[in-house]
Amino acid sequence: MADDKTAITSLLRSYQTALNASSTSSVLELYTSDGVFMAQNFSTAVGTEAIAAAYDKTFAMITLSVDFDIIEIVPMNGEYAFARTASAGKVQLKSGGESAEVNQELFVLRKENGDWKIARYCFSSTLPPH
Predict the structure, then answer these.
(1) What is the radius of gyration, based on Cα positions, of the chain?
(2) What sections of the sequence does the record tag as coiled-coil (predicted)?
């Protein structure tokens, strides 16, 4: 179980790095082949092509600079786990301007070919509505 938590921590850190680099290809490497991405205010993206399009669209609009705080990692069995995180930082709009970025996230993780991957991911802002 400790090895799983270490591997999942590494996965989440890699996800943070990929987001901050605006790298769709790096993000996709971290998802399962049947992954699901549920971003606040967007339609659910199911599967590699839809996830790639969602991240491409996101990275075309914004540049993120965020840090993840890993609140909990719970291995369920040898195949599934979940992780709960909080992230904070800044978002730079490509159209100009900058704002705070503060979210809570839930990851459902699954082992695929021996490696932990993101099977389902959703997030929501914890900032008050404007």
Answers:
(1) 14
(2) none
Tell me the per-residue pLDDT of 80-89, one tens digit each, with 9 for 90 and over: 999 999 999 9
121 closest CA partner among 4, 6, 2, 11: 11
How far apart (Å, rounded) are the C-alpha atoms in residues 96 and 6? 38
On whether the CB atoms of residues 64 and 91 are closer than 8 A, the answer is yes
DSSP for 48-71? Answer: HHHHHHHHHHHHHHEEEEEEEEEE
Q: 35 falls in which pLDDT band (50, 70, 90)?
A: very high
Q: Domain holding 89: CATH number?
A: 3.10.450.50
What global pTM score does this model have?
0.94
How many structural domains is the chain composed of? 1
